[in-house]
UniProtKB/TrEMBL annotation:
Localisation per UniProt entry: Cytoplasm
Protein family per UniProt: Belongs to the eukaryotic release factor 1 family. Pelota subfamily.
Occurrences of domain eRF1/Pelota-like N-terminal (ranges): 7-137
Species in which this protein is naturally found: Diacronema lutheri (Unicellular marine alga)
Name of the molecule in the record: eRF1/Pelota-like N-terminal domain-containing protein
Amino acid sequence: DGGRAAMQILHRDVSGKDGSGSVKLMVEQTDDLWHLYNLIVQGDSVRTTTERKVHKELASGATDSQRMKLNLTVTVDKLDFDAEAGELRLSGRNTEENPFVKLGAFHTLDLQLHRTIVVTKLQWDALALARLADAADAAKDADVAVLVLQPGVAHLCLITPSLTLTRAKVIVPIPRKGRRGDGGAQRAYDKFHEALLQAVLRHVDFSRVSALLVGSPGFGADDFLAYVWAQAAKRDDARALFAHRAKMVRCRASCGFRHAVREVLSDPETAAQLSSTRAAGEVAAFDAFLAMLGRNIDRAIYGYAHVRAACDHGALNTLLLSDSLFRAQSIAVRRQYVALVEDAQQAGAAVSLFSAMHPAGEQLAQLSGVAAVLRFPLADLLLAESAAERAGAADGSTASADLAAGAVDAAMAAGELSSDDDGEGPRVLPGAGILEGDMRFGSDVWAGSDAGPF
């Protein structure tokens, strides 16, 4: 099987004193663009090759325009990532003299695969360096493909180490009346199964995926796999699937919609195929948090203020964070989450950073993006600190207000909050939908903790 190409770090010049410096790299795949989206923040400088329409004045006095490739350096003001299209755009002002682009002129860079990029920061913090090392890890997890289906509806998703990408959505009307063997109903099912087969042939590269998990309620997955093997026996375009039969695994799912992908990732029957994947590791970590929340509510907390207080008292066993928190525009907010991670590690807690583009990351984002399982209960302490915060707010203290504003800033940057036009203020939105060593991007959630998972 072919390996996953890793981001290439061509040159690294980062100061050991203050963390300032630059890294020259080349992105090899869409996952690398996602890493860059999380690495690059407002105020960083980025240099790469880009195209721009340039106007030239001819000898006759007329002007001519043509598109030219230029090397530009911009100070980042805004970033936009499209996972499905595999595009990362950033815009900002040009900071270096150029014969064709004025100093200070705005320009939008489209960061593309197999192109050299130089990122310069005033400070490469521990999380940024950990993500950079993860992106350059050639031994990354293999992709996993997931197909969830029900009669007439199916979604085919690709689970990469950082992203959950919808590769195909299939909808075919299935008659509600009539038995399966009846002519009209059978033709509809055959049409549905053929559309699914074509989606698999077109979008699943078995040289890169470790498994294709097919989930459904009832016997829908069995019927589809039976159709696949029947067609592979008599058609040249599908015959190659026989070589990958062991990778096609039947599992359980409640429906054919995208949210059922999470059920497949947490199905015990698929544990062997998913044991090394980060998405499954995130699901397991979040399920452990929910289990503790249901069993002993005093040892499962969420929200920055409570998690920070628990960390200060050495109570953290497992810290769960959404990577969207580190895309806040406020430098102070980003630094407080970096400090939380570093302090948790020093206290021996396991830290798992969830991708906001994975199912479990979407759910964590709806719980403020930060949660923790504690080694021992802190209910009385947390209640006392909450009361103290309220008292401080009543006395005119700005500390609580600053913390709340910072949390809202991080959530707004992550797309977890939206300003509401009805005057009720921000509201929680559904998530859009990984650190190394003790900081991990997804799997081996409990590693590094002396206390074990609970």
